[in-house]
Amino acid sequence: MFSTLPVSTRIGLVALCAATFTAITSELAPVGLLLDMARAFNISAGRAGLAVSAYALIVTVAAVPLTVLTARVERKRLLLIALSGYVVSNLISAFAPTFGLVCFGRAIGGGAHALLMSMVSAYAAHLVPKKLTGRAISFVFGGASMGGVLGVPGTAAISQLAGWRVALVVVAALAAVLTVLIAVCLPPVIKPAGRPSGPYKVPRESVRAFAWVISANALFFIAHNVVYTYIAPLLMAHGLPETSVSVALLFIGVFSLSGLWASGLMVDRWPRAGVLASGMAISLGIALLGGQFMPAWGGVGVAALWCAGYASIIPFMMSGAIRARATTADTAGAAINSTSNLGILLGSALGGQLLAVYGVSILVPVALGVCALSMLVILLSGNAFPAHLGEHEDEEAAEQVCAERGPLMT
């Protein structure tokens, strides 16, 4: 895909891909460690879900402001600061004597996440020619998908073998090694295109389309995380042994890659049909998982269908936010990052409350209701998710956004 690019640029793209892998592994590790953490601090699984919520809260609040405030900070330096934040975050959580300190460590990780995940798409785009912008961003965010595929079940497996604290130390070590490698190998962006001079008024239609996209994004993340944060007890309610949870999460993660493949076929041609098909896959998988007579590994299978639909949502939302042309690419990425984590925060918190009061059976109908609302937003969104895109429309939009994005270095 990038065979014509210099070796240093290819190494840089791989480094950014590894950075998103580390980011998502750090963010979602508590999903696989939830039960062990709950037992360690003698708390409920619902309360242990706050380890996810604390992280998401900081990203939700800080993503856009931090992106704006650090717009003139050299990107490589900022990336190294963010990765160092992951090291500190996981070490604090790993050695925390109380659950409150675990959440404090997770909050530090949320700040690092707010920086890193908002900048990597623009960094990748500035490493490559404009015609390769989309491919570069897709490749870099492939690391985020692999974080869900390998990171969550990997940390769950380490937790079963050596304990959840050791699992977090391993994640911290991964971030530390990556920090050193990026300091040595990642090329800085030397001279990106500047921002056009003169005032620029954003059309009202662009603002409206952007609002539809981020609203749909938040709702899909809420629907997903109401259930996914507590997927371990949900699968165990269908008879899956606790010792098989990490294997089940690995299978679900690997199968979810098919969703990314499917979205790649449609995101540049039929955004509306693709995002609605993704929503239907999510709804069908969650609905089947709520069936009373679903066997243990049957539940794993339908959870894999749901997570494949969820994985395919992300490219549609990112491309839709950029295509709206309501703001710069950095800020669009930060807004998607912020609303994604708002969905994680609200979904995990809502799921935890429902789990504590009503039990695991209530999670599925609530998630289905929110998912239906998100698809209604898609249907009402007009041009935010066009029925069809012309052959060069996305490329032209990407080039315009690249021109408007402004310098990555002072």
From TrEMBL:
<protein>
    <submittedName>
        <fullName>Sugar transporter</fullName>
    </submittedName>
</protein>
<dbReference type="InterPro" id="IPR011701">
    <property type="entry name" value="MFS"/>
</dbReference>
<feature type="transmembrane region" description="Helical">
    <location>
        <begin position="78"/>
        <end position="101"/>
    </location>
</feature>
<keyword id="KW-1133">Transmembrane helix</keyword>
<feature type="transmembrane region" description="Helical">
    <location>
        <begin position="107"/>
        <end position="125"/>
    </location>
</feature>
<keyword id="KW-0813">Transport</keyword>
<feature type="transmembrane region" description="Helical">
    <location>
        <begin position="137"/>
        <end position="158"/>
    </location>
</feature>
<feature type="transmembrane region" description="Helical">
    <location>
        <begin position="362"/>
        <end position="380"/>
    </location>
</feature>
<dbReference type="InterPro" id="IPR050189">
    <property type="entry name" value="MFS_Efflux_Transporters"/>
</dbReference>
<feature type="transmembrane region" description="Helical">
    <location>
        <begin position="243"/>
        <end position="262"/>
    </location>
</feature>
<feature type="transmembrane region" description="Helical">
    <location>
        <begin position="164"/>
        <end position="189"/>
    </location>
</feature>
<dbReference type="Pfam" id="PF07690">
    <property type="entry name" value="MFS_1"/>
</dbReference>
<keyword id="KW-0472">Membrane</keyword>
<feature type="transmembrane region" description="Helical">
    <location>
        <begin position="274"/>
        <end position="294"/>
    </location>
</feature>
<feature type="transmembrane region" description="Helical">
    <location>
        <begin position="52"/>
        <end position="71"/>
    </location>
</feature>
<keyword id="KW-0762">Sugar transport</keyword>
<feature type="transmembrane region" description="Helical">
    <location>
        <begin position="300"/>
        <end position="322"/>
    </location>
</feature>
<keyword id="KW-0812">Transmembrane</keyword>
<feature type="transmembrane region" description="Helical">
    <location>
        <begin position="334"/>
        <end position="356"/>
    </location>
</feature>
<feature type="transmembrane region" description="Helical">
    <location>
        <begin position="209"/>
        <end position="231"/>
    </location>
</feature>
<feature type="domain" description="Major facilitator superfamily (MFS) profile">
    <location>
        <begin position="11"/>
        <end position="386"/>
    </location>
</feature>
<dbReference type="InterPro" id="IPR036259">
    <property type="entry name" value="MFS_trans_sf"/>
</dbReference>
<dbReference type="InterPro" id="IPR020846">
    <property type="entry name" value="MFS_dom"/>
</dbReference>
<keyword id="KW-1003">Cell membrane</keyword>
